[in-house]
Amino acid sequence: MFPTECFGGAFAIIFVFPLERSVVTRERASGTYRVSSYFVAKTLCELPRTFFFNMLFSCILYWMVGLRATAGAFFFFVLIVFVTTVTAESLALAISILAADPQAASALIPVALIISVLFGGFFIEGDQIYDWLVWIKWTSLVQYAFIALVTNEFEGRVIEDLVVPSNGFTKWENMAFLVLILLVLRALGYFFLLKFRAPTFDKSL
Description:
Layout: H1 2-14, H2 17-29, H3 35-65, H4 71-98, H5 102-118, H6 134-137, H7 141-154, H8 171-196
Helix pairs in contact: 1-4, 1-5, 3-4, 4-5, 4-7, 4-8, 7-8
């Protein structure tokens, strides 16, 4: 589920921002608006679309799979899916801004997401990771989302022989770390756009 949401959110950005970049660069050069105005407007405009599709996805998947049938558990699930998707979008946006062209971005973003998935607890358990690579686990957005949802589903339940994955944090603490990664990636995206994409006129527009 998380790989699908991450890649879906990322690819919604990869081929959109490069088309906007030349327009934004021209408008910055002419002094029409500031980078912060564009960046905040883009972020706010994309949130309702992302939330709508995440809610639709959650309403279908959650009850189809038969997860914990409580309102609190369901809305936490929706919240985690939404924040995970926005975080993946933020990663894709930062890389798209830094990359020279859409082809470079489309090559780099899947690599970053695959690394996050690999160290997210699906394929490699914590004790199987080399010591010099352990730090990557703590930067994995998938890890925090995965553990938060596992905790949301099984917390308080007693099931024989069930081993629930854990990273030592509560579901809300994992949510907080996920939001922190989101904010860091958005800040990096803004910084890259501000510092590495100097405004110049594009005569083809």
